[in-house]
Input
Amino acid sequence: MAEEFQINDFDYALPEELIAQEPCVKRDDARLLIVDRKSQSLQHRHIFELPEILRPQDLLILNNTKVLPARLLGIRAATGGKWEGLFLQENTEPELNWEFLAHTRGYIKPGEWIELLDRENNPSPYRIQVRGRTTDHHLLTSPVVGHNYPEVLDAIGHVPLPHYIRHGKDNASDLQRYQTVFAQSAGSIAAPTAGLHFTPELLNALKAAGIDQTFVTLHVGAGTFSPVKVPDISKHVMHSEWCEVPISTANIINQCKGRRIAVGTTSMRTLETAALHSNSPPLLQPWSGTTKLFIRPGFRFQVADGLLTNFHLPRSTLLILIAAFAGYELTMKAYVDAVQSHYRFFSYGDAMLIL
Output
């Protein structure tokens, strides 16, 4: 039975200067707050110390999704007005459409053409036509004739940075830094941020220390930024995202003799979703599909023994997940300590390891 919490319980005061606007110069230089659930204690370390913090036979489970350059800019052909769209997915109902979260001045009508711009804000060869809207007001357009969406996004798309990163749109480094070094399966519009701290050298050092790694996939959607709009968190309707635990990963997890540590809330949701669909617990079975799993206090975790995660926005489902895993009181104690210790918050910020 889930404990009763209100969304106000997950608020905290965060000075604006602690919201990281740039990543660390070196990915694994990020600070690491270790949260020990057994002793209820906190310890300050760094990501590069993970090979000595973790134990031989521990297993890191990482999300190998790849962030699409999903933000497009354009000009409305009819009015010359600016248009901005965040590509969400291909929508096949009732025909093949591209679906966007879109912003423009004035009402854009079906039939209007949008001339897309390149990364230098010059005209590109690509154009799309407005066809209508979804029931949740997302814009539907024609595809670019003769091109699939990965081609177009790779050619002219911008990094879909979160709204709280204000250093500009498209710092040259963002195409590389807002992506994990192990990204493989394209499909996300936001990075699995806990994974951003790893370098190839750190991954090799972890392997040399006997700490193995395996991968799941969850494609992060626009709903990850959706606020909880109801006072009673049990009434919140979670967004849907596609995820997968391949058979090779399920086998590695089942054979693990150490602690199974989810890297990021996306990996955690993927693992626990697969566990709920497994019919032979405690063995984890391979699974893929969409998940709407909302992990909140009272949830019974079946797979992960630890969680490496960044610091999340107040009143968010991600912070609620952390409280479910670490315990509410210890979570809020850790966040207060992180603020007082001047940790850097959110996507480009520091991390915490809950054991």
The chain is about 20% helix and 25% strand. The chain has a mean pLDDT of 95.
